[in-house]
Amino acid sequence: xxxxxxxxxxxxxxxxxxxxxxxxxxxxxxxxxxxxxxxxxxxxxxxxxxxxxxxxxxxxxxxxxxxxxxxxxxxxxxxxxxxxxxxxxxxxxxxxxxxxxxxxxxxxxxxxxxxxxxxxxxxxxxxxxxxxx
Length: 133
What we know:
Shape: globular
Structural class: mainly alpha
Number of domains: 1
Order of helices and strands: HHHHHH
Oligomer: single chain
Largest sheet: none
Number of helices: 6
Strand content: under 5%
């Protein structure tokens, strides 16, 4: 049981840390971030909005009661990133060797693991809301 809790915390921390690490680049208009969001036609609002969403998701991931919500947000945000990489940007961005794509994939996997581990909580919340209507 303790091993499972440790693995869940590692998944939460890895996903949150990777998303938080990219905030500096988004909020300081680093060339890579500006290039990405210009290419997909969402510069600057998409860059800043995505940064805010990643910040919220990261905080929610690190709070045990809301980790499921942060993980769902993380999956949604990273789905956009992965689709953008696959269809608009390419895997490699400005000679990064695919690092940003790989980070989005790792975040998605970690968040999916958290969602899977918290599925009873999520279904309980859904059941509570649907039984009241």
